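Reopening this ticket.

The earlier resolution said the output was attached, but the attachment link was broken on my side. Pasting everything inline this time so it's all in one place.
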Amino acid sequence: MKGPPITVRCDCGVVQHVPYGETWTCPDCGRRWDTNQIPADEYFGVLRDMRRYRIQAMALGSAIGLAVVLLAAFTHRPVFPLALIAMTGWWILYMPQWRKKVRMRARDLPRWELRSG
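Inline output:
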């Protein structure tokens, strides 16, 4: 699985998004930037954290959906209002906290200073 590209800002001001593990040569000044200078364990640790956050949100949403489906199957009562309440609670109560947690993690991401070659 490929990770998100790394934003490389050349000393001359050119900005380019480069995939991890590749090199990029600035078209203006000719400097080469190698993203292999970034420690792999740090880069893939960030990817692992972000994947874990996504899986947590999907798991909770799926659990709520499964609970509503099972309730509908075993009680034989209309659960549409309950499903609406559950979905609304998930979007209004859980998702803002989840987004806040993900944004805080994104702000705390390490910054790597690459050396041009």
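Reporter confirms the inline version is readable. The mean pLDDT is 89. The beta strands are 6-9, 15-18, 23-25, 32-34.
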